[in-house]
Amino acid sequence: MDDLQPVAGAPEVRPAPSTRNTFHVYVASLESPRSRRAMGACLHRLAAMLHTASGHEPGPAPGERFAWERMRAEHTAGLRALIGRQTTQGPAGEQVPWSPSYRNLHLSALRGVLRTAWRLGEMSTDDYQRARAVANFRGTRLPAGRSVHAAEFTALLRACAADRSPAGTRDAALLAVLYTTGARRAEVAALRREDYDPGERSLRISGKGDKQRLEYVHEGAAALLGAWLAADDRPSGPLFKPVHRSGAVQHRPMTDAAVRNAVVKRRRQAALPPMTPHDFRRTFIGDLLDQGVDLSTVQQLVGHASPATTARYDRRPERRRRGAVDRLPFPAPEDIGESG
Questions:
Q1: Domain 150-322 CATH (choose: 1.20.120.530, 2.30.110.10, 1.10.443.10, 1.20.1250.20)
Q2: What's the pLDDT tens digit per position in 153-174?
Q3: N or C, which terminus of the chain has less Cβ within 10 Å?
């Protein structure tokens, strides 16, 4: 088998058969389906970059057929340079560079698959340590998304109330849970009836890393959730279920994509600007911090591993900075007069 050689700053890598597929072993080791999808997609992109840089067609699922165990320090250095040049389409159709966090996500996938190759005995310790020693990209971006204002939430519930089918009742309860717990959409999709205690208004949520926490829904949200549960007297099973267009409730769990689609459908009916399920999480965290709830409590409520992650959602520093700018002297409109 020919040795790999860097070509135009990137390694020339050819697929190689392996009795143990490093890609599959690594992806299977990840805990959540979402992580497996995300990291698998990263490896497919990385393999496609390397094949293209070497003048080869990537073909379908290139990450699965790529000889990750043959990567060496010069190859990962070249791959990092390729990652730094990647762009994506912006909102106006323009090409914008990948964000630092998105670049580093791909480096994390690379280190993960290299570690798997080392654990399988397909890379020496020295080759592995040298290959994985690529620096993360520096830089930060402001958090994406926006807050969902109380008036917008009211408009969403009105849109649900106008739908007399079970889907309207379900979506009102689903939106209320998102709004008053800050749960992730995958967490909401995974909820079961056994996880909800109506007396305590508590939800047992299984978050990232199989960590459980208790969330408490608002009294108004509990009423909407009770109306949805009254439509089905089954004591166990998924909490939120798909509703067929005929109005029949299907006894299987919703997917996290279905949760997103429900949000999109109701905000369009309410004629509101774009929003995502994660915007409810941002709103929940920001509203609690605005109300003076301490950072540690908010961190526990939303299941963040680090308080630094929770602090990124704190809107108070931005408001203080805006207030500081507003104190600058600036001429009044009547003092400026008509221009020209």
A1: 1.10.443.10
A2: 999 999 999 999 999 999 999 9
A3: C
